[in-house]
Amino acid sequence: MNLQKTCQEYLKNLPQRTSDVIERRFGLNTGERETLEAIGKSYSITRERVRQIENEGFSKIRPMINANREIVDNFKQVLISFGNIKEEKELLSVLGGKDCQNQAYFFLANCDEFERIPEDDNFNAFWTIDKKSIDNAKKTIGFIINKFKKEKRVMSLDDLSDGMKKEVLESYIGISKEIQKNPEGKYGLKGWLEINPKGIKDKAYLVLKKNEKPLHFTEIASLIGELPFSNAKKVHTATVHNELIKDQRFVLVGRGLYALKEWGYNPGVVKDIILNSLKESKRPLTKDEILEKVLEQRFVKENTVLLNLQNRSYFVRDEKGRYNVREA
Predict the structure, then answer these.
(1) What's the CATH code of the domain at 240?
(2) CA-CA-CA-CA torsion sign (188, 190, 193, 196)
(3) What is this structure's pTM?
(4) Consecutive 10-residue runs of the chain (328 residues): their mean pLDDT?
(5) Backbone angles phi, psi at 163, to 5 degrees
(6) Which of 18, 64, 84, 214 could join 14 via S-S bond, C-beta 3.0 to 4.6 A?
(7) Does the CA dihedral 50-53-58-61 come out positive or negative?
(8) Helix H segments across 154-194?
């Protein structure tokens, strides 16, 4: 189908000004759609008069478009394959390819068998051939949103399909503003950092989450550059270090080494870890017991722990060689 050629055939029998108005309104020649006001100024007429001219042209074109079963049936089959619904930009890309999206929109807008549902707070603009499918799509979207809220993780189409045809599910999800897809092809809620990370801190969090182990801030900076969310700008290691220090999600567990607090790492220096370990145990601990607990929390040398234990302002040693917190 040559959509561009067909559009020109429809317009050639219209009065010159009517043809020009419709071409400019849909961007059929230039690719840029123009407003009623802009066209009116060029003709020194009101925008309402432009609308009247446009409608006069539509009254002659629409019967021809509705009668063009090759294009209409082709467009309908595409929508049927997507569950009778498709987000506008995606549908125009499928129907018109790279060069004829405005022509595809022209056909949809002037055919009685297609209906455009405008954008609102929750949904993108989309097209349908069956209003019943709108209810199905919205119910499916509501179910998926609740699933995300319950499981709190990004998911693939396979995770979400539950037997539904993937093309249909993807089409339903595509009309939702609340559900979005990240560059790795995983879906989640738009506010999630796995979907829309904001700044270095969120990207550092994703790097640690993905690697599942503490990393040096220089390595984190390097790996941020490999994330699909990242742009071409170089990530400076000093910037990463400064951001991690200020964010409570991260814990410094060694010399330049960071872990996630949610992994069970407690904030503070070695002295604080020893104090917490003794308070939690509610009994004196041996040197080896303290070493074991601290080295679970910090990547430091044993001597560093032993030097901290010698601080008599915080720790006391009993006759059995066990350590406890010095009472105030």
Answers:
(1) 1.10.10
(2) positive
(3) 0.77
(4) 89 94 94 94 95 95 95 96 96 94 96 96 96 94 96 94 92 96 92 91 94 96 85 81 94 96 95 94 94 95 94 93 88
(5) 90, -15
(6) 18
(7) negative
(8) 157-161, 166-174
The label of the residue with tokens 């270095």 reads: 200
Q: CB of 94 within 8 A of CB of 86?
A: yes
Residue 116 lies in a domain: no
Q: Residue 1: what pLDDT?
A: 64
> How far apart, in whole angstroms, are the C-alpha atoms of residue 162 and residue 149?
17
251 and 305 share one domain = no
What per-residue confidence (pLDDT) applies to 234?
77
136 shares its domain with 164:
yes
Please spell the DSSP secondary structure of 200-217, one letter per residue: HHHHHHHHHHHHTS-EEH
Where helices occur in 16-46 by DSSP H, the ranges are 16-26, 36-43
Query: Domain ends where: 146, 164, 189?
Result: 189
Max CA separation in the chain (angstroms): 107
The token pair that represents 270 in the structure block? 């070695």
Rounded to a whole number of angstroms, the distance between the first and last alpha carbons of the chain is: 87
Supply the DSSP symbol for 261. Answer: G
Range of the domain at 231: 199-263
Distances (CA, A) of 290 to 270, 283, 296: 11, 12, 10
Burial-class residue 203 by CB neighbours within 10 Å (0-12, 13-18, 19+): buried
**Is 53 inside any structural domain?**
yes
Task: Output the pLDDT for position 225.
Answer: 85
Q: Vertex 301, ends 295 and 305: CA angle to 5°?
A: 65
CB atoms within 10 A of CB 88: 20
Q: How far apart are CA 157 and CA 177, in angstroms?
A: 17
**Number of structural domains, the chain?**
4
Query: What is the CA angle 114-120-126, rounded to 5?
Result: 25
